[in-house]
Amino acid sequence: MSKSCNIPLNTPSKIERAGGSMTTRIKGILCALAIFLSFATSAAPRDSVAVTWTHPGPLLPDSSNFVTASVLVASPGEAIYSQLGHAALRMECPVHNLDYCFSFEEEAGMGGILKFFVGKTDAHMMAVPTAQFLSNFKKEGRQVKQYTLNLTLHEEQELWRLLDNDYVDENLRHFNFLQNNCSSVSLMAIENVVVDETIDFNGWPEPFKLINGAIMKHQTREWPWLQFLCLTFLGTEGDLFWEQEQRTGPELLPLVLKKASIVAADGSSRPMVTGEKEILPLVNRFEASRLTPTVAFGALLLVVVLFTLAQLKWKLCRAGRVLDIMLMVLVTAMGLFLIYTSFVSGLFGKHWNWYLIPFNPLPLIIWLIWRKRKGFYKVYLLYTVVLVLFILATPLSQQLDLPHQLITATLAVRCLFNYYDSKRNAATAVIMTKTKNKNIKNKK
To answer: pTM of the full predicted structure?
Structure first.
């Protein structure tokens, strides 16, 4: 755990008023140590980065540079979880040689990934020495910029204390995808300590005028697979507005900070940040794979269409049955997963997900129960109509996009074929039955 910088203040802080027992401090130290070891062993390399103080000069008579608070913003990484970049709070105290970054981090490893999708990922503010924190970004060649906050000495001290005592309360411990992220939690931490003043954001930047789905598309525009993943789970939340702080990502955070000002009780104001500095240069500019979801699922649709045409000509009954089973399993698995993440896990918050219309377990259930009934082939036509209408509804919701609708179109092609093929087989069976009965009658 980092050591908070303490100087006498006329007004005691909230934490000073609350006090604290030795047991609480020991638990806090052990918790921070466990978090630190987890971060160090899973994310940070062994080497460190030489960093300089934000204010290297001597202590001013009014002690206003005793503590310095800054926001660090890192450029996107190659891994899907880092493609939006990263943000953290840096706290410095040159007098006591303290320099820590407080980063909102979730669990790493396979267990963490599984917990993420079931909405049970715990996230905490981790205190990591700045040199060590930056080493991983240097290794990946990612740019890191620093934005020095224009807080009062009391606010800087209070911010450090809140972070040091694990600022994130119980309501924020579950990582709720884009709502509780590194940027939003950092911004809300700053807002939390500006108690005798107010932050005027002077009109949020242009992207914040968009609804959730549109602003998500904006922030993930360079990462198609990440965008596909986000839109898969967004549901009706895509057509709503969250709190602006919750919609703030690493790319948009500097725009918010530069535009904002802090207004004092007497009406005077000052910029929220006083400077911008590049801590690490941009060495690697990561690019998304050329195999985008649109390309991948467009190719799938093309293959299925060509196969279906071949099946019309050469039958290929067994291969067609295998293809339909694979698609049925895929639709059922996706449907069950979406039901859980939408209504149980709270990954985005419990809500309706539009993709449950084409992807759900109902087709499999109906097929298992009624497939042997006469006229069952009409179900294929009904489902085809539903899928086509769903594709036509694309402009009605920000969640609906081309890659997902290419999958929907693939299902529609197979459903339409199965309707035609089953109807043809049923008609052939009727003709054969009539012919058989006629032959029997003639023999008599």
So the answer is: 0.83
